[in-house]
Structure formats: C-alpha cells, structure tokens
Amino acid sequence: MWRLRRMREQEMTTTHGGALRSLPKNTEAEQVVLGAAILEQEETIPVLIDKLRPEDFYRRAHRIIFRTIRDLFDRGDPSDIVSLANRLEEKGDMEKVGGRVYLNELIDRVTTTASLDYYTEIIHKKAILRSLIEAGGRISEFGYDEAGEIDEVLDKAETIIFDISRNQASGNYYMLNEFMHDHIDALGRLQADPGQHAITGFSTGFPRFDEMTSGLQRSDLIVVAGRPGTGKTSLALALARHIAIREKASIGIFSLEMT
Fold first, then answer.
1. Any idea what DSSP says for residue 92?
2. Any idea where the domains of the chain sit in the sequence?
3. 124: which residues sit within 8 A by CB, 6+ positions away?
4. Domain spanning 1-173 has what CATH number?
5. Given the DSSP bridges, would you call strands 3-6 and 19-22 parallel, antiparallel or unpaired?
6. Of the candidates 25, 38, 27, the residue with the CA atom closest to the CA atom of residue 110
7. Model confidence pLDDT, tens digit, residues 19-70
8. Which of 75-84, 125-134, 161-170, 248-257 has the weakest average pLDDT?
9. For the whole prediction, is pTM greater than 0.70?
C-alpha cells in the first residue's frame, strides 16, 4: 500500500512494501530555470508560464519563487533580482526561499539559456511522474474501500488519470500568432504561382481550390461555415465521397445531429 510522508520543506518521499523511495525530482534543473527567469525575463518568462505551473516544482522554495515571478509578470512589473527580492519581502516569503543569498545562487547556476526548453521538459516530466505516484496511492485507497460501487470507483480512478493527462497536454498548446503569419505567406505563394506547388494532401475534386491549398492535409481541422440551407452538409459529403473513391482513403462521418 502506498503512503506519502511529508518531509523537511514539504518535500515528499514514498514507501512501498516498507521500502523508502524518493519521489522523482531534478532540483538542479529547477534552479537553472528559475535563474534564467531572473536573468532573461523577456525571453524566458512567457515560455515558462506557458509550460510550467508553480506546483510542477519539487522544492517549496522554488514553487514560491516561480509563483512570485509569474505574479510580477502578470502585473507588468520586472522580475529582476531587485524586484523579485522586494516582492518576496513584501509578502513575507524571503526567509522561506532562503534569502537573497539563495536568489544569487540561482543566477550563478545559469551558464546559458539555450537549453531552457530541455530543463523545462525535465521539470514537467518529473511533476507528471510525482502526480502519477500520488494518483496510485489515491486509487489504491479506492480499491480497499469494498463498500463502494465498482462503477463509481472506476469513474473516480479515470477522473484522476484524466486530470493528469490533461495537465500533460496543456503545455503543448501554441498561440495562433506563432504560426499564422507563416501559414498566410505559404498560402500567398500558392495563389501567386499554384503550378509550382504539388498537392501534398487529399484532392478535393476542385482543381483551383487544390492548387491554392495543396489539398486537405492530414493534420487539418477544416470548418465549413455558412447560413442554414446553403449546402454545407452536401459539400462535406461530396468531399468525403471524392476522397474515398479517388484517393482510396477510409472515411468516417459522425454527425452531431445523429441521435
């Protein structure tokens, strides 16, 4: 049976079958990431906020520091070491994170920000693994509760795992403006000289449309929009029929109007 034990600085270990084991962590990666956030604010903080949450950090001090950096960023304030130290003192958290000496140690850990994505991924991975370990303990408790309905127990277990999976996926979203301009430029080149660009996706049966778009790509989410009764469904079915017959592709159709 899994049990969680709270240790110094709220760091955690697990016991399984009587054996004491440390939770997955990489405090050195956490130090580098936080130091980079203090040194290179404009370049690093937007990336870190998009990929990490305060609870992803193993050490309590690191969670406090990252949360404070994020709060400063959200307010539009700088998060350099002076501003960060001032904010920590205002909140009464300076001693909790190890004082100014430790903030300087974080900066000293940074040699380059080129590997920031690598260290960020390490932190995220370790956080997911710790979440799975905690989930295992909670799910095992459900299993020992023999009075519960099995469907309810399974639903609870699935919800716990789903929440972890959702957090895992959350760091993989991108802002539309990160790739929108490149995509528009590519479409412009296709329209200007369609003959120079081969169809890389599925042909729609509309030659001019295929020339401008290179066909329907496998990763595309395509929205057919229009007023009621203008033929949206007919067009979608025609495209599906053409791709199935001419492209020899398997097609699945699911209508939200089906009951």
1. T
2. 1-173, 178-246
3. 51, 52, 56, 168, 171
4. 1.10.860.10
5. unpaired
6. 38
7. 677 899 999 999 999 999 999 888 889 889 888 999 999 999 999 999 999 9
8. 161-170
9. no
Burial of 67 per CB tally in 10 Å (0-12, 13-18, 19+): middle
* d(C-alpha 69, C-alpha 169), whole Å: 23
Amino acid letter, 69: I
Q: Tokens for 144? A: 């020992």
Mean pLDDT, all residues of the chain: 81
128 Cβ contact list (under 8 Å, min separation 6): 164, 167, 168
| Phi, psi (deg, nearest 5) at residue 202 | -85, 135
- Residue 235 token pair: 């067009």
Residues 202 and 249 sit within 8 Å (Cβ to Cβ) = yes
Q: Which residues are catalytic?
A: 257
Q: Output the pLDDT for position 197.
A: 54
For residue 38, give the 3-state DSSP assignment.
helix
User: 200 in helix, strand or coil?
Assistant: coil
